[in-house]
Specification:
By secondary structure, this protein is α/β, with parallel strands linked by helices. The chain has one domain (about 1-160): Vaccinia Virus protein VP39 (Rossmann fold, 3-Layer(aba) Sandwich), CATH 3.40.50.150. Helix content is about 35%, strand content about 20%. It has helices at about 1-20, 30-40, 60-65, 75-85, 120-130; strands at about 50, 70-75, 95, 110-115, 135-140, 150, 155-160. A 7-stranded mixed β-sheet has the order 3-2-1-4-5-7-6.
């Protein structure tokens, strides 16, 4: 029985390490900051949020009740499972086990949320090419290639 437990823990550790190699590390956004941000933003029931690396679904759960739809992309299957469990009561939240770099953003996307890592610079620029009327929220990281960003509660916010 003890060996099975060690194997399970090893598999979980390998998945989390592999996620860091192919994406950003799991760093949960602080609820307090996130709730302040949601109150400050001028959200409508027409907004569609896409979270690029949705982790445990926290951002989706906080934004979800305020907007039309919240979509999360996550490459860690354990976090996807946890997110689906924690978001099950919200009918407007979708969580996908997928690499956002291989996805096409829904046309109705109005908000993009991310925990930015420099390795995604080109991928993000490609995704945003020819897109307008977007709010981009980066938790803790300035996006140097975007202009007119403002900070609020630890987030960098850009309007394009």
């Amino acid at each position: 029985m003890e060996q099975i437990l060690w194997v399970i823990l090893a598999v979980i550790a390998v998945v989390f390490i592999a996620t860091v190699l192919f994406g950003a590390p799991f760093v949960p956004t602080h609820y307090k900051q996130l709730k302040k941000l949601v109150k400050w933003l001028d959200l409508t029931n027409q907004d569609v949020l896409v979270d690029l690396g949705s982790g445990d679904g926290r951002v989706l759960r906080v934004f979800g009740p305020q907007i039309k739809q919240a979509i999360g992309y996550e490459i860690n299957p354990f976090l996807v499972l946890w997110s689906k469990i924690s978001c099950h009561k919200y009918h407007n939240i979708k969580i996908k086990l997928a690499d956002f770099r291989l996805q096409k953003l829904p046309a109705e996307t109005t908000i993009i949320y991310l925990f930015y890592a420099n390795s995604f610079n080109r991928s993000l620029q490609k995704i945003l090419k020819n897109r307008t009327n977007l709010t981009i929220i980066s938790y803790g990281f300035k996006l140097d290639w975007l202009e007119n960003g403002q900070t609020k509660y630890g987030f960098w916010i850009y309007k394009i």
